[in-house]
Design goal:
Length: about 280
């Protein structure tokens, strides 16, 4: 074997060890391995495998995250809703794994010349409806949105699908950042109705993310926090414009939005409530 080929082989052999040392562990006892054909050491591939007495399952690791694989989930998978709807899977059940899956999906949408644009909307690997189905199930599975969302109409085009994908990612990120004690008391979530209303009205983008942030904050979020989240230059003015749009859509359903002491607020109201 040439010196160059040996260097490639050694570099590749370190890949699995590096992932194992630096990333959250794969679910259900999975582990990273390397596979380099003897005759072609430049063909470097890394897999996540699950091995038991009765099972051997592997999927190829997707980079740059190393937290997502391409292939079906293993039979021992307990971190995804089954049957899973996508040929890309988070390799474990940590928040980092879930967000990496959303980031990979977003990156594929962002590539204008990628082959996935030429494929059908329900293609099992790159179809935009396939990604949305999986995103909905994943968001429900981790508790970021309610199960009612899964029955919504599927997007009619790639732009709608991309917007919904970003909405679910924002909901997941917000859910993961919420203190674990928020729902540990066993009490009913007083803002579950508002969450469900936002889903029924199919809010998107900043409107959907702001409503979820208010629900997670028990009806109040500092304007400065919204400013950081949405990269606003003028949080008070930006929120004022956003809340007016939300009031136009949601006031007749019994909710209105206002500002008090530099906080964005969500409040119950009558159908004839304030703007």
């Amino acid at each position: 074997m040439s010196e160059e080929a040996e260097l490639l082989r050694i570099t590749h052999l370190d890949t699995a060890a590096y992932l194992s040392a630096t990333l959250p562990s794969p679910g259900a006892g999975g582990r990273y391995i390397n596979s380099t054909p003897e005759e072609d050491c430049s063909n470097r591939r890394t897999f996540c495998v699950w091995e038991t007495d009765s099972e051997f399952h592997r999927v190829e690791v997707c980079f740059p995250s190393g937290l997502v694989g391409q292939g079906p989930p293993p039979p021992s998978c307990d971190w995804l809703p089954l049957p899973w709807q996508s040929n890309f899977i988070p390799l474990g059940g940590s928040g980092a794994h879930y967000l990496a899956w959303f980031d990979l999906a977003q990156n594929l949408f962002d590539l204008p010349d990628h082959a996935c644009r030429a494929l059908k909307e329900d293609d099992p690997t790159y179809g935009y409806r396939t990604f949305v189905r999986a995103a909905r199930l994943l968001a429900v599975h981790v508790g970021a949105v309610t199960a009612a969302l899964a029955g919504n109409r599927l997007p009619a085009n790639r732009d709608e699908a991309f917007a919904e994908l970003l909405t679910h990612r924002d909901a997941l990120a917000m859910h993961l950042s919420r203190p674990a004690t928020n729902n540990s008391s066993g009490k009913a979530d007083p803002f579950s109705e508002l969450r469900s209303l936002g889903e029924r009205l199919r809010l998107k983008g900043k409107e959907a993310a702001a409503v979820l942030a208010l629900c997670d904050g028990n009806g109040s979020v500092a304007l400065s926090d919204l400013g950081v989240r949405f990269e606003w230059d003028f949080p008070a003015g930006n929120w004022n414009s956003l809340r007016k749009r939300l009031n136009d859509k949601m006031r007749k359903h019994g909710w209105y939005f206002e500002t008090l002491n530099n906080n964005a607020l969500a409040r119950r109201s009558s159908a004839t409530g304030r703007k």
